[in-house]
Design brief:
- Helix content is 27%, strand content 31%.
- The strands form five sheets. The chain has a six-stranded mixed sheet with strand order 2-11-10-5-6-7, with no helix packed on it. Strands 13-20-19-15-16 form a five-stranded mixed sheet, with no helix packed on it.
- The protein is elongated and about 175 Å long.
- The protein is α+β, with helices and mostly antiparallel strands.
- Helix 4 packs antiparallel against helix 5.
Length: 320
Amino acid sequence: MDIPSGILWFYSCVSIVTLLLAVSRAQNEAEPPQPRFLNTPQNFTFHEGELARLECSLENLGTKKVIWRKSSDPNPLTIGRKTFVDDTRVMVEHIPLTPDWPLLIKQVRLDDEGQYECQVASRDRELRRYVNLIVLPGIKRKRVRPEIRITGHTYVEKSGSIRLICNATGEDHSPDDIDWFLNGQKLITDDANEVYIHKRVSLTDKTIYSSLEIKSADMSDAGIYVCRTSDLQIASARVDVLNGTRISDTNNVKRDGADPDHRYAKDSNRKGKYDSRVTAGNFASSLSPKGTILSWMVSFLSVLLWRHLQISGSIMQSVT
């Protein structure tokens, strides 16, 4: 039986529409969610010479890039974390796995004032957010004096871990880098020797932080540790590695009688009690190095006394 052409045409249209809907649904399910701006302030005011920070936060960014530019200039200031203008004052501060992509302008000037655009690199021109920067005339600020210091334990047990932290603050901005030295030799991260160096920079505090950790320290790790910044600030600390024998363990050994000197001291005390009952002759002979001479003198005097007593006895017998 022949099927009417109208019915065939109807079912063909239904099949095509169903197929298109299925394809569209599969594409929607496969596409990741679109980036979305989070609520952040849109107006920022700073004084001339301060560090200007323009906030911009997004979620669902994925592999797309964040672009900052000044609305009056079509050229980008930054793309991602890279700066595309010849101005060392401009940079993006982004911490991985966070939604924040703030634009930083160090030593902000009056001509930096204006409208800025935070945009996501996409065909959708709507993925952008405008913020306004207002720069007021500079005020006299108290200058921050550069400072550097090392903290951490300066005595560690052998096979323990040496942990030192170096903090360095700059006058106008944080130092660019920090190097570590031990007895004049530069240290670097070395997994084989269990030496680890980590660094972090805070542009807001104008401070760079660096931590040094040496695991399983031995006697060769003792000495003078120096941290030096790129602007030649220097701090040092002496670290001593103890040989691992605790004082309490030494005292226990002596209490257990394992120290031969300790036992000798007991014997000497006991001998002293006996020495208090010795004769004058034995006492003289026990002395050194003059004991022999004293013994001879005592013997000589004893002979003279005995001879004197003999003569006195003879005289008394003659008289009687």
